[in-house]
C-alpha cells in the first residue's frame, strides 16, 4: 500500500528540518546559523519558512531569550529521530564491518574456475570475514545471468558474450587456448594451426553449453571442420582420457593450469589469431552499492590477480 503523498513534499525542503533541529538545540538564531555554517540572514529566512510550514511561531521571544513553542517541543523528538534515520541511510557503508558480518553470499562458478579460484578465495574470506558463508552454485553458463537477474545468486563468473544494461561486469582475465595430448600416442608438428587441428580426432567438453565453441566457429569461417569423437560434461576428466587415447583437446589456457601435475602430457599454447576470450565477474545493478557484494567482488579480483597476475 502506498501511503506517501509525494506531491506534498514539493512544499517541504528537508533542509528545513535540519534548521528546525539546530534552532531547538541552540535556542538562538545566530548560534543555530553558526552550527550549520550558514549566515544569520539565511537562518532567519529558514525560521520564517518553518513558521509558515507549521503555522506556529516555533521560537518566540521572551525578554532576551527565545523559547520553543508547545508545538515545537512536541515536534522536536520526532524531527530528531527522522534526521538520525536519514543520516543512517548515508552511513550504511561506514557501518559495514566485514569482520562482524554474519551472512551468506551466493555465486556461480563453473567446475574449472571453482577448482582454480575457490581455494584462494575461501582462504581470503575466512581471514577477512569469518562470519561469511560462501555458497557456490553449480549453474550452467547459459543460465547464470538468468539466475543473477532472478536474485538466486549475487555474482556470476565466467564468459558472458551477451550482457544487458542491468549487468555490472568487471574483467578478471583474458585467456588464450592450449592443445593437450599424450606425446606417447600422438606426434604433432612444431607449428599448430587450424588446418593441423583438423587432422586429429578431438575430445570436446560441453560444460559451457551445447552450442559451437570458439574453435568450431573459427574453423567454419575457414571452411574447416574438426572430428569430435568424444564429449565430456567437464574438462576435468580430459587429461585422464587423453592419457589412454590418441586424442587432442583444445581448452582455455586457464583450464590447463589445473593439469600441471600430469607431466606425461603435452600442453602447448595455440598461437592462433582470434583464439582468446574474456573471463568476467558480473553483478546485478541493483547490488551496485551493496557493500557485501562489492567486498566479495574485490576478494575475487585479488584472488585472480594473485593467481594469474594483472588483467592483460
Automatic annotation (TrEMBL):
It comes from the Bacteria. PROSITE patterns: HTH_LYSR. InterPro entries: LysR-type_TF, LysR_HTH_N, LysR_subst-bd, WH-like_DNA-bd_sf, WH_DNA-bd_sf, YidZ_PBP2. Transmembrane segments: none annotated. Residues 12-69 form the HTH lysR-type domain. The keyword Hydrolase does not apply. Keywords: DNA-binding, Transcription, Transcription regulation. Belongs to the LysR transcriptional regulatory family. This is LysR family transcriptional regulator. It comes from Uliginosibacterium sediminicola.
Amino acid at each position: 500500500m502506498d501511503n506517501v503523498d509525494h506531491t506534498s513534499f514539493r512544499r517541504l525542503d528537508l533542509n528545513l528540518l535540519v534548521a528546525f533541529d539546530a534552532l531547538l538545540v541552540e535556542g538562538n538564531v545566530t548560534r543555530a546559523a553558526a552550527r550549520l555554517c550558514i549566515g544569520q540572514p539565511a537562518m532567519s529566512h529558514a525560521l520564517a519558512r518553518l513558521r509558515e510550514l507549521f503555522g506556529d511561531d516555533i521560537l518566540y521571544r521572551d525578554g532576551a531569550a527565545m523559547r520553543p513553542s508547545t508545538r515545537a517541543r512536541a515536534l522536536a523528538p520526532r524531527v530528531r529521530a527522522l534526521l538520525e534515520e536519514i543520516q543512517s541511510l548515508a552511513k550504511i557503508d561506514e557501518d559495514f564491518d566485514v569482520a562482524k558480518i554474519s551472512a551468506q553470499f551466493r555465486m556461480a562458478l563453473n567446475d574449472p574456475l571453482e577448482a582454480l579460484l575457490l581455494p584462494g578465495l575461501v582462504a581470503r574470506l575466512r581471514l577477512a570475514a569469518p562470519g561469511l558463508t560462501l555458497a557456490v552454485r553449480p549453474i550452467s553458463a547459459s543460465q547464470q545471468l538468468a539466475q543473477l537477474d532472478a536474485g538466486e545468486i549475487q555474482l556470476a563468473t565466467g564468459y558472458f558474450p551477451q550482457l544487458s544494461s542491468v549487468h555490472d561486469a568487471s574483467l578478471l582475465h583474458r585467456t588464450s587456448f592450449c592443445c593437450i595430448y599424450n606425446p606417447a600416442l600422438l606426434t604433432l608438428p612444431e607449428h599448430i594451426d587450424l588446418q593441423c587441428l583438423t587432422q586429429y580426432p578431438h575430445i570436446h567438453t560441453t560444460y559451457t553449453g551445447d552450442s559451437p565453441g570458439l574453435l568450431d566457429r573459427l574453423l567454419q569461417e575457414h571452411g574447416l571442420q574438426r572430428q569430435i569423437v568424444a564429449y565430456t560434461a567437464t574438462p576435468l576428466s580430459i587429461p585422464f582420457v587423453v592419457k589412454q587415447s590418441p586424442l587432442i583437446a583444445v581448452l582455455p589456457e586457464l583450464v590447463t593450469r589445473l593439469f600441471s601435475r600430469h607431466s606425461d602430457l603435452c600442453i602447448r599454447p595455440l598461437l592462433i589469431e582470434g583464439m582468446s576470450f574474456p573471463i568476467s565477474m558480473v553483478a546485478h545493478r541493483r547490488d551496485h552499492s551493496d557493500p557485501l557484494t562489492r567486498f566479495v567482488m574485490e576478494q575475487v579480483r585479488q584472488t585472480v590477480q594473485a593467481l594469474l597476475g594483472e588483467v592483460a
